[in-house]
Structure formats: structure tokens, C-alpha cells
Amino acid sequence: MLDFSLTSDQRQMLETVERIRKDVIEPNAMRWLDGTFPYDNMKVLAEAGILGMTVPEEYGGMGASVLDTVLVLEEIAKGCYVTSMAVLGEVGVQCRIVATYGSDAFKQKWLPKIASGDCILAVCMTEPNVGTDLGNMTTNAVVKGDRVVINGTKTLISRVEEADVYVVFTRVNGVPGSKGIGCVLLEKTKGLKQTGRFQTIGGEHLAELQFDNVEAPVENLVLKEDSLRKLMSAFNTQRCLNPAICLGLAESSLEHSVRYLRDRSAFGHPIGDFQGMRWKVADMLIQIEAGRGLLYRAAATADPFPEPTLAAIAKVFVNEMSIKVCSEGVQVHGGYGFLEEFAVARNYTGVRYGTLGGGTTETLRNLIGRRLVDRMDLESGIAGLEFF
Ligand SMILES: Cc1cc2nc3c(=O)[nH]c(=O)nc-3n(C[C@H](O)[C@H](O)[C@H](O)COP(=O)(O)OP(=O)(O)OC[C@H]3O[C@@H](n4cnc5c(N)ncnc54)[C@H](O)[C@@H]3O)c2cc1C
User: How open is the CA angle 32-36-40, to the nearest 5 degrees?
Assistant: First the structure.
């Protein structure tokens, strides 16, 4: 039997996060629109154990599932896009890569700090000339005795200034193509140079980072060449967490819209009396609930990472749905919906990130199409695909 109910632990966790959202996160959402990192919110969330939720229990975390993480990010995003993105950096794929592939020494040193909120993580994949096409990245890590030496440039990276640990996707020993990609866990070190800073329309800033003969102990080369498949498998987690943020933003826009329909009047009536307005919020809810179903199902398949096709379907649908829903939220608010001080305006700019990060919607359609055209057995049809 399909069970759509949340456990009592999940409900309790969500009540805690909802209280923090309403008391702390939502009232301060305007503070982070200029690229300032939301340390104050992170401190409160760390005290509640949220930042360490995906750290395994033996290292002081909660060992939370991907679905738990989806629920929490969705709730935080309802209050503030920038904060949800900062939290994503702690509870997302980078923490799972450290916990799954890190050496014992690295895990002993850093996982308790991630759990307590004392370590900020960054993930470095994108390069100036390579984003989607990861197999062509040029950053290279060469093993020299007991050291690994990295050279290259990464760009559009979140939390560069704040990070203590960088999860760096890199070519290893110059091996060409997708087969050459591995991963180094890097502590903040002198050779790292920030060479650019970019303000996003969502509020957070991104940066460019140069690796100039940056060295790490060879045991921090946690995935050697030919590991892209393993790394991408871990990345299916991110393909559920990115849409969790989009879902929360869409929900926020809907809730604010319903309130506005009651409070705002035109032609002598609350605008919620107009059928055209009621149909807007009805459609917003229909879309949100369709997306929520897809996303929770994909997240629930995690073992330890979500099923790739379901994660891709959920991400594409929720990313595109939430852009439409957040746009309708602006429309419902008339001209006020265009002012930064209105949550619907901030949701509208923040949500635009969804189709770009964590695998673009075009790449994910390629993945879904490939699985259908190359792999579907015509006898069993879609019922024969891996996820049924
Ligand atoms: C807010 C934000 C935060 C980010 N944080 C990080 C971070 O922390 N770390 C990090 O490494 N990166 C980060 N990024 C970068 C992000 O991961 C990349 O922007 C993304 O992977 C796309 O790469 P690109 O921008 O180089 O686009 P490109 O790869 O150049 O793509 C351009 C367009 O071409 C399309 N395209 C490319 N190939 C194909 C194809 N085969 N078929 C069809 N269409 C295709 C793409 O879908 C896209 O629409 C962040 C981006 C944003 C917006």
C-alpha cells in the first residue's frame, strides 16, 4: 500500500523549523539581498541541529534521509531563498560525498564540525568554459608522492568566501574525457585565490576561484579517475534538494497570494471575489501538489542516493512549475508584486535559479529521453523501467 503520511519524527522536526522560519528567518529575509551570508540564521539552525542533519549519527549528526532534507529545505525556502541556499550547502551533496567517500581521518576532523555548524562547505564543479559538459573540465589534479597538486579555475561557485572545506571535481593525472574525472576534498589553504565575485538576482553572491599549485594530502583524493558515474550518482541527491527549495518558494507565493486576495479590494470587492483570481490560486495549488508528489516519491527512493530518472522527472517538473507559480504570485499582487519588500517578488527572482543549478532542465530531459529511447523494453513499456 502507498503511504503518504509523514512520521512523527518528521512532523516534530518540521514544527521546529517552521517556528524558526516564522520567528527568525522570514522577518529578516530582506537583509541578505546584497550578497551578505545569513550567518545569524545559520547559527539558529545549527543550534537546532538542522545544519548537521545529514551527518551520520556517529559523528554527531542526525543521519537524516534525503526525504527529511527535502522537507526541511522546503520549509526554510518558504521564509527566505538566500537562507535555504546557504543551508543547502551544508545538508546537500557535499556533506554526503564527505561522509560516503572521505578518509577516516578527514571524517573524524570535519563531520563533527559540519554537524555543529562550524564548517561551511562549497562544491566546485563549474569552470569558465565548462558547466553542463563536465567531461571536458580542465582543472587537473596530479599525484606527486604523498601529495596531490591542483591547477585550474572554477566559477559561479557558492560560499567561496565562507567555506572551510571545498569538494573539488577535477580531472586526475590528465586522463582525458569523462573517464578522467575524480574528486579532491580540500581544506581552505593559501594557494586558493578568489578571482571574481558576482551578485545574483536571487540575493546570494557567487565567486570565481583559482587553484594555483594548490596541494592536499593524497588521501584527500577521495575518488580517483573514472569516478564521474559515482559522483553523478551522489548528485541525484542535489536533484531532489534543488526542487525542494523551488517548491517552498512556490508555496510561499501561493500563501501570500491567498492572503492578498482577502485583503486587497477593487471595484468594491475583495479581489478574491473575482473568479479569475480564484482560478489563479486554484491552479497554483494544483501545480504545487503535482510537484510535491513527484518530488517526495523521488526522494523516498534514496538508497543511499535517489533513483536517477525519478529525480530528473521531479526536478524538471518542479523547477518549471515553480517559475510559473511564482510568476502568478507576482501577478496577483499587481504592481506591489514587483517590490523587493514583497515576498512574492523575492520568490520570483530566487526561483529562477532552479532550472540552472544541480543539472539544467535540458540535460535532465536528455537523461530521461536516453532512458526511454535507448533502454525501454517495448514489450513491458514504461512499467519495465528501473523505477517501477
Ligand atoms: C545560484 C547558482 C549557484 C551555483 N552554485 C554553484 C556551485 O556552488 N558550484 C558549482 O560548481 N556551480 C554552481 N553553479 C553553476 C551551475 O552549476 C552551472 O551554471 C550549470 O551547471 C550550467 O552550466 P553553465 O552555466 O556553464 O551552462 P552551459 O553548460 O554553458 O549551458 C548553457 C545552456 O546550454 C544548454 N545545454 C548544454 N549542453 C546541452 C545539451 N547537451 N543538450 C541540450 N542543452 C544543452 C544548457 O542546458 C543551458 O541552457 C551555480 C549556478 C547558480 C545560478
Answer: 75
The span from the CA of 184 to the CA of 358, in Å, is 19
Task: Report the alpha-carbon distance of residue 219 to residue 208 in Å, rounded.
Answer: 26
Work out which ligand 1 atom sits closest to the CA atom of 125: 11
Q: Which CATH class is domain 121-225?
A: mainly beta
- Distance separating alpha carbons of residues 307 and 177, to the nearest angstrom: 25
Q: How far apart are CA 53 and CA 14, in angstroms?
A: 12
- Average pLDDT over the chain, rounded to an integer: 95
Nearest Cα residue to atom 16 of ligand 1: 357
Q: Whose CA is nearest to atom 37 of ligand 1?
A: 132
238, containing H or E segment: helix 238-263
- Beta strand pairing call for 181-187 and 165-172: antiparallel
Give the residue ranges of DSSP H helices in 78-126: 81-91, 93-101, 104-116
Look at residue 264 and tell me whether its pLDDT is greater than 90. yes
What is the DSSP-derived secondary structure letter of residue 351? G
Q: Is 81 in the pocket of ligand 1 (CB under 6 A)?
A: no
CATH topology of domain 8-116: Butyryl-Coa Dehydrogenase, subunit A; domain 1 (1.10.540)
* Ligand 1 contact via 241 beta carbon (within 6 Å): no
- Is the pLDDT reported for residue 190 higher than 90? no
- For 162, other C-beta atoms within 10 Å of its C-beta total 15
Angle at 209 between CA 246 and CA 92, to 5 degrees: 35
The predicted-structure confidence for 291-328, as pLDDT tens digits, reads as follows 999 999 999 999 889 999 999 999 999 999 999 999 99
Q: Are 91 and 45 in contact (CB under 8 A)?
A: no
CATH code for the domain defined by 236-384 = 1.20.140.10
pLDDT average, residue stretch 39-49: 96
Residue 207 C-alpha to ligand 1 middle, in angstroms? 14
Cell numbers for 360: 539544467
- CA pair distance 54, 61, nearest whole angstrom: 6
Per-residue pLDDT of 332-371, as tens digits, reads 999 999 999 999 999 999 999 999 999 999 999 999 999 9
How many angstroms separate the alpha carbon of residue 162 from the centre of ligand 1? Answer: 22
CB 153 within 8 A of CB 221: no
Q: Which residues pair with 166 in a beta bridge?
A: 122, 186
State the amino acid at position 294 in one-letter form. Answer: L
